[in-house]
Amino acid sequence: MNRSQICTGQGAQGGTPRARVQLAGAVASAAAHAPSADATGRLSAETVALLTRAGFARHFVPRVWHGTEGTFSDLLAEVAAVGEGCASAAWCAALWATHGRYAAHLPLEGQLDLWGRSPDVRIAAGLRPSGSATRCSGGWLLSGTWECVSGIADADWLLLAAPEPDDPRLPGGRCRLFAVPAAEIHVQESWRSTGMRGTGSHTAVLDGPVVVADHRTCSLSDVLAGTPGPGKSRCHTAPAYLGTGLLLCAPALGAARHALREWTAWAARRGAGRPAERATLQLTLAQSADDIEAAELLLADAALRADSGTRAERDVARNRRVAAAAAQHLVSAVERLFRAAGTHACSDPGPLERTWRDVHVLAAHQAVRRETAAALYADSVFADFEDRPERAAGPADAPRFLAHSAPAEVVAGVH
To answer: Which candidate, 177, 306, 151, places its Cα nearest to that of 241?
Structure first.
């Protein structure tokens, strides 16, 4: 994928004229309604409908349900394009796609419940294990609360993670993922954030125990590890952290481009009237463009790695490092622009001030924290140089996906 594709969102979904028109419509709507989304804490109904029509919800849905089974590279480009208009809209679009990838790990009967009528189903998620799940006849009794569930007000279904009871007869990991219709969820408005306000990342509440059938659940560890199985394509078997960080950076990439464009229009006018400042403005422009383009290249490389089918622990750690580095580049770019603009950026709410808030909040997500990513990457590299006695290969030699994919760090909200 070349840079023009990254900038315009021309991937598999964006390849046909109809798809390009649909994506362009979603981008335009997101941009037009960005101020109101920031003010109200929710995307406009028009933007939600156009993002859905553009194919974000179906991006990773299995083809058997008429989904796209798309690539990380295409999704990166398309989410970044939306992010140029509204980072919150781009965030929700990325998560609708990602959660479809997770739901592909449900049994076929559960997938039928979600996608039997249409692949364009918006799925929100609370992936930080919470609440309680107990066995009942034919399924589970699920109750509890899940914080930071982005786009919950516009979701058709929710995926909610909860600990399994201590029962040695139960297969899978320590936690399970439960698919619950949005109609059974109560939304507690709790999202008060500096940035990314339009994501509406409120709290999902199950006031009383809800029965969830067995076919609507799966092991959370299988989802995070991307465990292969019948009917799962390459996009479904990528470990969570191979693709999570790069997709969470995509809205910030788009927002940073928007900030650069807004700042450049202001600086061009100011530089023309005050030649003494021209050299400083030129340097600010060049340095911020460097940071943004470096982030683009890092994320595009990480997306290609996620699309390659690799499941190697080193590649997972590398993509985490790359995403964290890209996030830092984008923060640096936007911070530099914001400071150079001074009171122009701070006096009234506007695009530059909003993108500054949004990018900083996005970069605070646990999935792109540089200290954590650096430690995990270093561990994977240093292991090659450690003196260890030779021994026969065994279970301990299996990829340690869960060490890099702790459920608490794949939370589906901004924090």
So the answer is: 306
Looking up tokens 């809800």 gives 210
* Burial degree of 8 (CB within 10 A; 0-12, 13-18, 19+): middle
157 bridge partner residues: 123, 181
What angle (nearest 5°) sits at the alpha carbon of residue 403, between those of residues 123 and 384? 135
CB of 119 within 8 A of CB of 56?
Answer: no
Query: How many other C-beta atoms can be found within 10 angstroms of the C-beta atom of residue 107?
Result: 14
pLDDT single digits (tens) 108-164: 999 999 999 999 999 999 999 999 999 999 899 999 999 999 999 999 999 999 998
Task: Give the torsion sign (CA, 281, 286, 291, 296).
Answer: positive
Burial class (CB in 10 A: 0-12, 13-18, 19+), 226: buried
Query: Which pair of structure tokens corresponds to residue 240?
Result: 């969570």
Taking each helix axis from N to C end, the angle separating 45-53 and 87-103, rounded to the nearest 10 degrees, works out to 50
- For residues 18 and 10, give the distance between their C-alpha atoms in angstroms, rounded to a whole number: 12
- The pTM of this model reads 0.89
